[in-house]
Amino acid sequence: MNNEISYFTGVLGIYIRWCTWQRIGYLVVVGFFSGLMVVQTEIADALIRGEIGLTWQPWVATYSSVISFIIVSPFLIYSCELWPFGKAHVIKTTIKLALLYIPITLCFITIMLILRNSIHLMIDGTLFDSWDLIDRYIYEFPKALTIYLIFIFVTYTKINYDHSQREQLNAANLQNELHTIRMQTLRSQLQPHFLFNTLNLISSTVYQDADKADSIIARLGDLLRYSLASEQKPFVTFKEELQAMQSYLEISQLRFDERMALEIAISPATKLVLIPTMLLQPLLENAVKYGIEPSNEIGKIILESTLKNGLLEIKITNPLRQRTQQQESFGIGLQNTKDRLKLLYQEQASVSLESNHHDQITLTLILPAQYLENTHE
Question: Signal transduction histidine kinase internal region domain: which residues (predicted)?
Fold first, then answer.
């Protein structure tokens, strides 16, 4: 008994929630055009039978059926939503829907007959027909089966479609969350890595040259401020990134003095292109680590950028001191850069290393050229 009360309470609740103006309007439109096609058929059949005097009767007969089914349809929709139709429930749900056909159809016929007879009484003072009421129910009962089955099919199709859309949306949201977490993890790995190396540099110079250590600390502060300010910005312009990296390069030059030469050739067309924040830092760090640090000879680091066919190309060239180590062990900085670009651009970005004349190695980054809105040089 409690189950029946719970079911009918749920039916009433879903009926109230379901009957919004938008849904009612949708059913009215669908019912109107469906009924219109049926009415035309009824009128044509009547003319063939010679019932030329029929005018409003086919309209009453058809639209009383349409309105009646609209009234009972929320109960059927609620039942379809309540009873899943998957492989594990197909037999049980089929039995339930077969049994539900009885009360739904009885309600549908009852409402339909009330509407038909009421309208006939108001128009010409007669009943819809002279049939016995039981005969009319017996006649109408199997006729409703086709509409019932079509409605169930459409309803379950809509339910499955909505469920599929929600799953796709949830999967997309989950993928975005995982993507964000992954990006944050990569960035959080880069910052301690760079900070550790810089602090070691400060430690090694503070007692030998206090002024140099002060300069390094000042530039480190500039770089950390940039990193913190861009914490919530996944992308910055190439110009902003380059300005911040000047601090890093100056730190390196303070460390190696005349051993490190620097050449920067930046195309003006690339300055407003958006790139991932802190993209250049680990790459420049690798250039210093593998190109300058291992040798007492003078080495030059070259940073270039060009714009070709909608692609930003960045090249970082440094002396090739330890070819095997440089090519086989990229370290956390370069590996994280590859991972970041893979997450952000999929196959549209690339990272490559190429040795030149056996004494230099060039790292080439190629990214899609993207800009802020209304900002393009």
Answer: 182-259
Handedness of CA 155, 159, 162, 168 (dihedral sign): negative
CB contact set of 229 (below 8 Å; sequence gap of 6+): none
- Across the chain, which has 377 residues, the per-10-residue mean pLDDT values are 59 62 66 69 70 69 83 84 84 91 91 88 81 86 89 88 84 65 51 66 77 82 76 83 86 82 92 89 84 86 92 92 49 73 85 82 92 59
Q: How far apart are the first and last CA of the chain?
A: 75
Could you give the C-alpha distances from 357 to 27, 149, 275, 361, 365, in angstroms and in order? 76, 77, 30, 9, 20
Q: Where are the beta strands (DSSP E) in the chain?
A: 235-237, 260-266, 274-276, 299-308, 311-319, 350-356, 360-368
| 36: exposed, middle or buried (Cβ count in 10 Å: 0-12, 13-18, 19+) | middle
H or E segment and range at residue 93: helix 90-124
pLDDT score recorded for residue 52? 55
* Nearest of 269, 266, 242 to residue 375 by alpha carbon: 269
Residue 130 identity: S
Write down the pLDDT at residue 284: 87
Domain with CATH 3.30.565.10 in the chain: 179-368
Q: What is the secondary structure of 99-140 as a DSSP string?
A: HHHHHHHHHHHHHHHHHHHHHHHHHHSS-S----HHHHHHHH
* CA 267 to chain centroid: 35
The CATH classification number of 179-368 equals: 3.30.565.10
For 303-327, b/e burial (b = at least 16 CB within 10 A) is bbbebeeeebbbbbbbbbbbeeebe
Find all residues with CB under 8 Å of 61, minimum gap 6, and list them.
Answer: 42, 116, 128
Q: Could you tell me which of 126, 289, 282, 117 has the C-alpha nearest to residue 190?
A: 282
